[in-house]
Design goal:
There is one protein chain. The chain is built from three helices and eight strands. The protein is α+β, with helices and mostly antiparallel strands. The longest helix has 20 residues. The two termini are 13 Å apart.
Length: 174
């Protein structure tokens, strides 16, 4: 009886360590149809993004004119709002943004940890972007995922110590 219990607990501990070490989580997963009124926008806040996370975007305008898809750091978002109100300029991540589109699939690997906004823009900013004519209807798919590691997961020292403690506790229990 003791050996069965010992083997069961040891196996469960090892399985939990391996499973938890390789787990990845999706930060954002959106699949929706949306209407954006003329001179309005739709923002998607993305918090606690890690460097190396991958943003995937698939967007189609089903009615209306071209739109802009802008990725910006959260610190640049107030500048975007100000640019809409006062027709000014603002900062955004150009390599991850697309202007004047009606259909696009795109992906971007984040270079820095942080908070970001993805903005679907139906206004007349930024310069060189889509010129809004009316409201737009869009099909939108957005995801942010942490890619699985390419090397085998490493077991942390804490997990090893915990496993050794459990094994000794079982071996010396009365």
């Amino acid at each position: 009886m003791f050996k069965r219990y010992y083997v069961f607990v040891t196996m469960m501990t090892l399985i939990l360590m391996v499973v938890s070490a390789g787990t990845t989580y999706a930060n954002i997963n959106i699949d929706q149809t949306r209407t954006i009124d003329l001179n309005k926008f739709y923002e998607i806040p993305m918090t606690e993004v890690k460097a190396g996370d991958v943003l995937s975007l698939d967007i189609q305008v089903t009615s209306g004119g071209p739109i802009d898809v802008l990725l910006m750091k959260s610190s640049d978002y107030p500048g975007y709002l100000n640019a809409i109100a006062k027709r000014g300029t603002f900062n955004y991540i150009e390599e991850a943004s697309i202007k004047g589109i009606t259909s696009q699939k795109n992906s971007y690997r984040f270079k820095e940890n942080g908070d970001y906004y993805l903005v679907i823009d139906n206004t007349d900013v930024p310069d060189g972007g889509g010129s809004p004519l009316d409201q737009v209807d869009i099909n939108l798919k957005v995801s942010v995922v942490t890619p699985a590691p390419t090397e085998p997961p490493k077991i942390s020292g804490f997990e090893v110590i915990l496993a050794v403690f459990v094994i000794f506790a079982l071996a010396y229990r009365k």
